[in-house]
Specification:
The chain is built from 6 helices and 11 strands. The chain has helices spanning about 10-15, 25-35, 50-60, 90-105, 115-125, 150-160; strands at about 40-45, 50, 65-70, 85, 85-90, 135-145, 145-150, 170-180, 180-190, 200-205, 215-220. A 6-stranded mixed β-sheet has the order 7-6-11-10-9-8. Strand 10 (about 200-205) and strand 11 form a beta hairpin. Helix 2 packs parallel to helix 3.
């Protein structure tokens, strides 16, 4: 697995199938470890570009290894959107236990590339770790008609260090809709703790025409349960 972007489910998956977890470096190094028999599987769900895995996957497939996304669907390259959210490379006999275990632990189909990018952004609101967030240099953000971010680097810095995000404790009831370059997320966001939790309802639009998020438009409303 990735030593910098391990899948959230990897610990539970390893326990489920009786495996040990070994963080490694590049996609090529991990794929070759499986090919040489030094590792049984390479599982990735932290996002990467097509060109990061295309050559390692080609070599692994030629050697007879199983290669797919984490939901078992084929890895497809040379797409208009060059972002691949996840992959599995493993010995063929391990594919079914791994894919079944991932399905049981995640409980949902794998994200499309654009939805994966939007999800990483939303996750950073809670974690304050924006290392996986991919924003264009001139990306901008608007919240309820007010411009709150004028560049990708500025938005990244705010996600990691902005005081306005520190009280956020969770995101729930998250749903995505995607068409063309558009992704819309609808969710509830909780801030505070104990008896002082405030919940708001958010509809957030992401424009993702290529390999980066180019704009973020949010509508933030009071949630009825919040009074």
């Amino acid at each position: 697995m990735s030593d910098s972007r391990p899948p959230e489910f990897i610990g539970a998956l390893a326990e489920r199938i009786g495996a040990d977890v070994a963080p490694m470096g590049s996609a090529g190094a991990k794929a070759m470890a499986v090919l040489r028999g030094e590792a049984d599987a390479y599982v990735h769900a932290g996002g990467q570009w097509e060109w990061d895995s295309a050559a390692p996957v080609g070599v692994a497939q030629a050697a007879g290894l199983h290669c797919s996304r984490i939901d078992g669907t084929p890895l497809v390259y040379n797409e208009a959107h060059p972002y691949l959210p996840d992959l599995v490379i493993c010995r063929p006999e391990l594919a079914r236990p791994l894919l079944d275990g991932i399905a049981a632990l995640t409980g949902a189909p794998a994200d499309s590339p654009r939805v994966a990018m939007a999800r990483e952004y939303l996750s950073s609101l809670v974690s304050h770790d924006a290392s996986k967030v991919r924003l264009a240099a001139d990306c901008f953000r608007v919240e309820n008609g007010q411009r709150t971010g004028d560049s990708g680097p500025e938005i990244i810095a705010e996600l990691e260090h902005g005081d306005q995000y520190k009280p956020i404790t969770g995101i729930r009831d998250l749903e995505f809709r995607e068409w063309g370059p558009n992704v819309v997320a609808r969710f509830l966001l909780d801030m505070g703790a104990g008896e002082h939790v405030i919940t708001v309802a958010i509809t957030e639009h992401f424009s993702v025409p290529g390999g980066e998020i180019e704009s973020i438009l949010a509508i933030i409303e009071p949630h009825p349960a919040a009074g």
